[in-house]
Amino acid sequence: MSRLDPVAQRAAAATPPVVAARLRGLSDRALAWLFIAPTMVLLLAINIFPLLWTIRLSFTNYRANRPNAAVLDIGLTHYRSILTDPDVWAAMQATAHFVFWTLLLQTLIGFFLAWLIDRKFRGHDFWTTVILIPMMLSPAVVGNFWVFLYQPQIGLFNYAVSFFTGIPPSSFEMLGSVRLAPWAIVIVDTWMWTPYVMLICLAGLRSIPDYIYEAAEVDRASKWRQFWGITLPMALPFIMLAVLFRGIENFKMFDMVNLLTNGGPGSTTEVASITLKREAFEKWRTGYSSAFAIILFVAVFGLANIYVKALNAVKNR
Asked: Most buried residue among 65, 86, 133, 221 by CB atoms closer than 10 A?
């Protein structure tokens, strides 16, 4: 502390007397707000202002590629157009398909892996690290990696399917098939983010006190009864938390779909984020895309709010 005293003394000496007098009169609460004020201003600048500006643009016919054109207020025209557009509803249906199946598979597989690792078998630390590797990679790496795996001529995925089913490897194409392309994206996202769900579920399993299981064994409860009566109910808030995080991320999924299929073939895998990108940066309908972004934001916020209330009810029961 003595080495810091000269520095503090020089800082105090360099502080103008008027500023020093004002600082000495501030309470601890005021000083705390003084320190966090720059961060709050930065967050408002990069989050709140763009949101308000997007809301403003959603009521206009503004196009970013025509900045000098007249900007007219058109009211709720964009919102009515979006909510009655069959292409938008098709994109929302593709998004719902992706979100539902990825959440289901990631939750089931992630919880099962967490349950296995929680057994603390020999080498479980090593296998935990191996399982976490996909989550450590960037989406760009994972996307390009799986594009090669899905190649019908040289990809290992087709040969693996052929080995177990006997189907010729070149007889199907995961990314080029209207029927298989949505499942190809589900497989990749499940492979990459199941470890994330596993970590949260593992934290929930290891938070269960051992004495509860000991009491259940004294009462001669079977392992199956312990699982349904102790393990699953006490880990349920963590499972629901993992579903919440992954649901929000998957609803706005863009990078993985863009790298694998770019919404194709046709519009089979065109999720809402791909539609939003095309409206904003290919068709340059800035006002329309702003309204679409607001609708997506309200949908995610509303569903998340309802889900959080259900999560709190489970935690407080």
From this structure: 221
Distance in angstroms between the alpha carbons of the first and the last residue of the chain: 49
Cα 291 from Cα 280, distance rounded (Å): 11
Please state, for a pLDDT cut of 70, what percent of the chain lies above it: 91
pLDDT band, very low/low/confident/very high, at 2 (cuts 50, 70, 90): very low
Q: pLDDT tens for residues 171-194?
A: 889 999 999 999 999 999 999 999
Look at the block and give the residue holding tokens 């080029």.
176
User: Which amino acid, residue 209?
Assistant: P
Q: How many CB atoms lie within 10 A of CB 255?
A: 13
Q: Is 285 exposed, middle or buried (0-12, 13-18, 19+ CB in 10 A)?
A: buried
Q: Could you tell me if 178 and 265 are in contact, meaning their C-beta atoms sit under 8 angstroms apart?
A: yes
Count CB atoms within 10 A of the CB of residue 116: 16
Domain boundaries, the chain: 5-57, 77-315
* Separation of alpha carbons 111 and 317, rounded Å: 22
Average pLDDT over residues 67-78: 88
Would you say 272 and 296 are in contact if contact means Cβ atoms under 8 Å apart? Answer: yes
Structure tokens at 19: 């500023």
Q: Which residues pair with 73 in a beta bridge?
A: 60
Which residues does 308 contact at the CB level (< 8 Å), separation at least 6?
244
Distance between CA atoms of residues 161 and 183, nearest Å: 14
Q: Is the dihedral of CA 211, 217, 218, 222 positive or negative?
A: positive
Element (H, E) at 49: helix 49-57
CA–CA separation, 11 and 169 (whole Å): 72
